[in-house]
Design goal:
This protein has about 170 residues and is mostly beta strands. It has one helix at about 65-75; strands at about 5-10, 10-15, 35-40, 45-50, 80-85, 95, 100-105, 130-140, 150-160, 165. Helix content is about 5%, strand content about 30%.
Length: about 170
């Protein structure tokens, strides 16, 4: 799988967009706000997957420049990071806690996931668990206006994302 430009190298900002000749004829340069996909690694070896939306101007979603992405990843502790294909190809699919189904987590700028030749697939080899690890708070909607009431329920989630029972006598506020 290819990528570029390099965003962070050795813990230092390193946007190599121009040096790596990514400034082709598309008109989408490093200084334009676009949907972006990137990945980085922190000093302790954690992988950070980054996706931002863009081009949904009616919803105020403008995207980011490659420098913006590099700075976000630096703030998250990345010491190495690379930009991946973005624009209409930016799509993040994941299994939500408590679900068996995959869900598109962002809004691809084409309005649907684009067919692309490269993908990054991450999966866990951990044995499936049903032991309580944390609670997931669930509501019927994601947006609420001031003064509106909203019913929230809690569900137990295992370390491997399976629904499980909440512990006896749990409380939350």
């Amino acid at each position: 799988m290819g990528g570029g430009p390099l965003l962070i190298d050795g813990g230092k900002f390193m946007d190599t967009y121009v040096e790596e000749l990514f400034n082709g004829t598309s008109g989408i340069g490093p200084d334009s706000n676009q949907p972006r996909t990137a990945m980085g690694v922190t000093a302790d070896g954690k992988m950070i997957l980054f996706v931002c939306e863009g081009r949904q101007m009616t919803e105020g979603v403008a995207g980011l420049t490659t420098a913006d992405v590099a700075n976000v990843l630096l703030d998250l502790g990345c010491v190495e990071a690379i930009n991946l294909d973005g624009g209409g190809s930016t799509t993040f699919v994941a299994r939500q806690p408590g679900s068996d189904e995959l869900t598109v987590m962002n809004r691809p700028s084409d309005g649907y996931p684009r067919n692309v030749s490269t993908n990054l697939l991450m999966y866990s080899t951990a044995p499936s668990s049903t032991a309580f690890d944390h609670a997931n708070l669930v509501s019927a909607t994601k947006l609420v206006t001031i003064g509106t009431s909203l019913q929230i329920t809690a569900e137990g989630i295992s370390a491997t994302g399976n629904i499980t029972d909440l512990p006896e006598g749990y409380t939350w506020a």
